[in-house]
Amino acid sequence: MIVGCHAAGVITFGFFLPLLLRIFDPFALLRAGFLLQSCGALGCALCGYISQKVAFAVLFSLIRFVLGGMALMCELASQAIAFRCVSADKAPVAMAGLIVIRSLGTTLSPTIGGALYPLASGGWPLPFFAAAMLFLLLYAALFATNAYAASMPPDTKSASVLQVLSSLGTWFATGLFFLMFFGGLMLEPLYSPVLSQLPYAMGYSDIGLMASIFPISSLVAIIIGTIVLRRILKEHTTPHQIIGVSIIFVGYLALGNFFTLVTPSTGLFVTGLVFVGGGCGFIIPSHPTIMLRILWRDKGLTKDELGGALAATTTTCLYIAGFIAPTAGSGVYDAVGFPALMTGLAIFFVAGAAICIALLYKYDDPSPTPPTPSNQGWSKASEQGI
After folding, report:
1. pTM, 2 dp
2. 3-state class percentages of the chain: helix first, strand second, coil last, to nearest 5
């Protein structure tokens, strides 16, 4: 329950936080997000001194709930800033870059926290104190930077999550994104029970390394996928999505030992994780591309208006998958075993992805592009390097 509170915060806050962009400067929201996360991390550290279990659980859950919302606020403010600073054709690259930065944080933070916890002066509070200091430094750096940067006023036309979901096409694009990460999130609670048994028989440290293969593969593949989409496929999203889905499909089959026709081994398991993580990362750049295209053609929304709302929609979708997948995966694993689970997941994924891609095909033509301009004052300042 405590772990799920962070995701609950993201999902709950995700529906109304984009509306704050109509009232506040996105830089102000980003500063507030850093400062509140610093306070939240400090609160988590102090929770360790609470002796009553119920009081600890309630307060720690509440802080994690708020931290989930503040993390989302930083992400959507960052996207709003990035979308206003770049042209429409560069917006998907900016969004992919933000995803890389976020993924680096989620990949490195468990390793850093795990290294700080066992230190002589460590224990429960030290990782949280370190996080509080990091967010405070980010707040101070952003505050100092804003003193010399051009202002970025609120945009009264900033879209909401409901506006993003008002087009049927965005449901299929978001559905494909959901399916991409559903399996990866399903794997998280299964690493230990699967890899600790024969033929793998791994210890905790080796299992931890195996769990890092998926996010690392995704990070590398995002870069490759962006290059392929822009330079080779010329912004055609359908073939890009088909390639990514095919890679993920093969990865699930490898994890399922290719219908149990191949003897399971560590090498085969690693290959499966690389393919699944790499396929997810490969497709990611096409997601903002197709979402911007759908919402411009169906609803007339520009990338400036969508900065923030897209981040909230995508992140909320990801955390909904994070709620469902681990529980569903554990239940099916207990019933049928890991190879059958992965084989069934491969079939379920490729069938669902094929439907989404087919229904998104009408948006594959990249020729009609949305207009670039809304915040002219900021655009001119950016061109001058301010």
Report:
1. 0.84
2. 80, 0, 20
Q: Please state the length of the chain.
A: 386
Q: Domain spans of the chain?
A: 4-149+158-365
- Say how far apart CA 340 and CA 166 lie, in whole Å: 37
- pLDDT (0 to 100) of residue 326: 84
∠ CA 363-365-367, rounded to 5°: 125
Task: Specify the pLDDT at position 379.
Answer: 41
Q: Which of 178, 198, 196 is nearest to 186 (CA)?
A: 178
How many whole angstroms separate alpha carbon 252 and alpha carbon 197? 19
Which residues does 189 contact at the CB level (< 8 Å), separation at least 6? 326, 329, 330
- Give me the residue label for tokens 């554990």: 330
Check if the beta carbon of residue 348 is closer than 8 Å to that of residue 203: no
Q: Which CATH number fits domain 4-149+158-365: 1.20.1250.20, 1.10.645.10, 3.40.50.10490, 3.40.50.300?
A: 1.20.1250.20
State the Cα–Cα distance between residues 330 and 327, nearest whole angstrom.
5
**Signed CA dihedral, 45, 51, 68, 205: sign only:** positive
Q: Helix, strand or coil for residue 236?
A: coil
CA distance linking residue 70 with residue 97, whole number of Å: 20
Q: Tell me, what's the pLDDT at 221? A: 93
Q: How many CA atoms lie within 13 A of 111 on its CB side?
A: 11
Residue pair 27/152 in contact (Cβ under 8 Å)? The answer is yes
| Most distant pair of Cα atoms in the chain: their distance | 63
Contact 269, 202 (CB under 8 A): no
Q: How far is CA 67 from CA 4, 10, 37, 246, in A?
A: 12, 8, 6, 36
Provide Rg for the chain, Cα atoms: 21
Low-confidence ranges of the chain (pLDDT < 50): 372-386
Instruction: Tell me the per-residue pLDDT of 283-330, one tens digit each, with 9 for 90 and over.
Output: 999 999 999 999 999 999 998 999 999 999 998 998 888 888 888 888
Q: CB of 378 within 8 A of CB of 85?
A: yes
Q: How many CB atoms lie within 10 A of CB 261?
A: 8
* CA 256 – CA 238 distance, rounded (Å): 27
Cα atoms in the 13 Å half-sphere on the side-chain side of 277: 21
Residues 111/17, Cβ–Cβ less than 8 Å: no
